[in-house]
Structure formats: C-alpha cells, structure tokens
Amino acid sequence: MRKPSRSKSASASTRAFRPTPPTPDSPAQLACADFGEWTRIGLFGGAAGGIELSVGTALHLAQVPLRGLALSSLQGAMMTFTGFGLTQPGRVIWVPFISAGLKALSPGGSRLRPMLAICAQGALYGTAVQVVGWNLIGVTLGGALIGAWAATQGILLQYLLLGGELVKAYDAVVLWLAQHWQITAPALPWLVGAWALLHALAGGGVTLTAWRLRAPPKKLRELIERETQRAPVAAVDQASAASRRWRTLRELFRWQFWLPMLLVSAILLSTGRSWETVAWLALRVVVVGVVLLTLVSLLRPARWADKLRRRGWWGPALAFSGAMRRSGRE
Known about the structure:
Elements: H1 6-16, H2 26-30, H3 32-62, H4 67-83, H5 94-104, H6 112-132, H7 136-162, H8 164-180, H9 188-213, H10 218-228, H11 241-249, H12 255-270, H13 275-297, H14 304-310, H15 314-326
Helix pairs in contact: 3-4, 3-5, 3-10, 3-15, 4-6, 4-7, 4-9, 5-6, 6-7, 7-9, 8-12, 11-13, 12-13, 14-15
C-alpha cells in the first residue's frame, strides 16, 4: 500500500493544529485565576450598567421619589456581591467605572450626572474598603458614603454652577418664612447634613444587608442574568464628531438644567437684586456648564480598553472590553 507523502501529512497536521489568532486580551487570559476574577468584574459591571439604563430610565420617567438613593444603593449592593468572588475585593472599584462607561454610551437620556454619580460612588466605596478592609465595617462605611454622595451631589453641582448666590437665595427664603409664616427653617449646612445622614443610613443598611446575604437574591439575580443576555444595541461612540458634540451640548437645552437658575434668579430679584446680577449668574451657569460638558465629551469609553492595555492594566482592560462586547458596543 502506498503511504502518504511526508509533506501532505505535515500539511494536514499544520491545518489541524493551526493556532487561533491572539486577541488583544490574550496576555490577561494566560493568568487563569485573574482571568476568572476580571471576567466576573466585567459581568457585574455590565449588568450594573444595564440596570442603570433600564431600571434607572424607568424610574426617571415615572418620577419616582428618592430614585437616586435607590440606584446608588443598588450600585453598592452590586459591588458587595461582586467582592465575595474576588481574592482582592478592592478590585470592585472597577464595577462602577464599567457601569459609568456603558452609561456614557447610552443612546438617550442625561449622561453627566449619572456618570459623575456612578464614578464618585465607586471611588468612595473602593476607598472605604481599601482603608478599613473587606469586612462588615468597611462595606457598611462604603455604602454610607455612597448614600451621602447621592444626597449631596445635586447640591454640590448646583453650588458649582450658581456659586454663593445659591446660599443667598436660600437665606432669603428662610427669612421670608420667618417673617410671614413664623416658620424657623434650619440653616443650609444643617439641612444638607441631615439629608446626607438619612441617605447614609439607608445606603449603609443596603450594603450591610448585601454583606449578610453574600449573594444576590432571586429577583436581583434574574435581573442580572437578563441584563447580561440582553441583545446588543448600537454604539453611540460610532457617531460622527459633530453628532457627538451636538448630543453633548443638548444637555444645555434641558429644562432641568435651567430650573434651579430661574428659581434662584426670581428669589434674588424679589429681594431687590439688580438684573445685572441675574445676567452675570446666567453667564456663569452657561460657562461652567459648557466646561463640564466639554470635559465629559472628551471621555471616549469605547477606547478605554485600548488605553488600559497600553498601560499594562490587562485585568481592567479585559473586564471592560468583555462588558463592551456583551453589550454590542465593541
């Protein structure tokens, strides 16, 4: 019987065992333990971003009270559940960053406030866990800081836009209530502090409950699974540069952006302040708003994974690119 030639045998063997082309995340996949951890972080980060888009949008459309506290507490619970499967629980700080990146690529709705909230909450929670440790106290403190930020972010942002005129307007309202209705209202710092304390207690209570449960309850687990299996959507980052700039500046035309300034202006005019003061206030709001929106527009989440790879941060790059791939944005 005639044997096959050596060249044909070698050719067949080469075709059979031809290696698959490497992916950008191949170096990260070589470390099996870290690969599993970062995959878990990507799954929970993508699910958190999907929940923010679906549940968060529904709550905002329905104008549900305290929806910011509910979403921030859910972020704290998601980070707590993620940490139980990690050898280095401090890595949970990447969960909200992935969630914020996916929120930045959402096709509609406001992006500035949710992105700031999610990133700040993740940084506060991660700092608490790093300083105090992955224990009951650290997790509860992280949840409390998340709740406090949810209560104060809007006020801090308005103070950044309106400056000291916001405090003067509040003092004028307090004085008017005392003169006409004999109602004594607390000073603004006390009011903000009490509001933040209530939110901190709620946020800390949610993360404490998550610590006790150690795994998502059935309803939340089903929601996470549904978000990870959701059909991909079109990527916003593929739009033209002009389209992205217009979408960013469109934030300035939302009535929610102008309502605080209009209320403060009306109060200032009623107390005898000049129209010149109101004009300078409006100019300040526009300038600060444009600067903030411009900074946000410079963030390109679709390129974050590549930048992380170039810096040698293969784990975060793996988690972020995995979440982007599952959501159809990479």
